[in-house]
Amino acid sequence: MSGSDELRTKVSGFPRTPGVYLMKDDRGRVLYVGKASNLRDRVMSYFREGAPDDRLQLPMLLEAVRDVEYLEASSEVDALLMESRLIKDIQPKHNVRLKDDKSYPVVEVTHGEDFPRVRITREPERTSRVFGPFTDVRGLRQALPLIQRVFRFRTCKLDVDASDESRRFFRPCLLHAIRSCTAPCADRVSKADYVRQIDELVRFLSGRQTQLKRTLKRRMKRAADRLDFEKAAQLRDELETLEALSRRSLKGDYPAAEVLTVDPQEGLREIEEVFDLDYTPRSIEGVDIANLGGTESVGAVVSFIDGRPFKPGYRRFRIRTVEGVDDYAMIREVVTRRFRRLKEEDETYPDVLLIDGGAGHLSAALAALRHLGVTLLLVAGLAKEEELIHVPGRRRPVELERRSPALRLLQHVRDEAHRFAQHYHHLLRRKRTFGKTTKTRKKPGKKKGNQE
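Above: the chain sequence. Below: its structure as tokens.
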């Protein structure tokens, strides 16, 4: 049996779980470290005859490999972090490019701030805590929002001073509303508690998850013993969220209506650049209306966070004030009702509002926002056919390349709003035509869905 046959036999016994694999030479030295969501399938692909691979170092690597070992991980997120730590510690020959941390992104925890920020960067500050480098850039960008849901750190560029008492009047962003940030910008967390969050994040990124879980359990028990049940419940939730992260895939848990073939984060960054925004948007809402001859007219709002659909944020509206066919008036009504509710309940506004339509539809939305005194980072209209983006203050619409990540993301939002509006419109038309016989049975305990 040849060496390759022996390796294939060994690898065929690897588990189909996330983890990292270590390729070794005849002296037991680690030549290469990689991660996998499925260890068996990923490593077997190296030794499958005729398997294509575009990595230039692969033939040279495989000639020297005499053994492969693996370490299981609890999740793809854990595998991503484990790979980074091993590469940094071992410095394998065939991961040599990673010796220069500037070549690959790292996770940076800023230093010298009352409320440290966390970000992905290729050029960290010299005084910051740095974790990485990471080979899988896309995986890292998918993992960070998941980790943020556990440790609720801030990623914004705001200069937050603990002594600034005016913070309590500041409105936190959407991340606070979805429990992904404790909002130090709005004085919703003390400096001591926020520093504790960062300390726990550092422990997690350093591979001390088991120790962190034990600490949380001890603190939860002490809180319960002194009858501080609110604190105990908070710690219980943190522990459960940490456990959930260990079971979560890097694919995320956003229920998408359709597959987006570009990196959403790349699309958001390009939106910031193209429209010269002050920061990279994280939340987008899309608006569309649907009617047939002015009957059963409806509006719909869809919500995207970090470039992916966020179904709990979807809303639908039956048009109340418009008779006949007047798309502009319907847009005004839907935008008015949506943002009046957000304003009255002191909820966070989206960064970007996208209207399905051209300059006229955009003007109707802007008129509604001005009437309410609401200002957003960006309001735009995306017209069909020519796929031109209309924005206020520009004489000509913006035309992006058809393969532009920003355009593809905005098209996704626009098309999802259109789909959601049409679905609601068809539902009402069927009910009107067939009466109660088309009524769907509600699930026990489920509220009427997101209608305003």
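Residues 51-56, 252-261, 436-449 have pLDDT under 50 and may be disordered.
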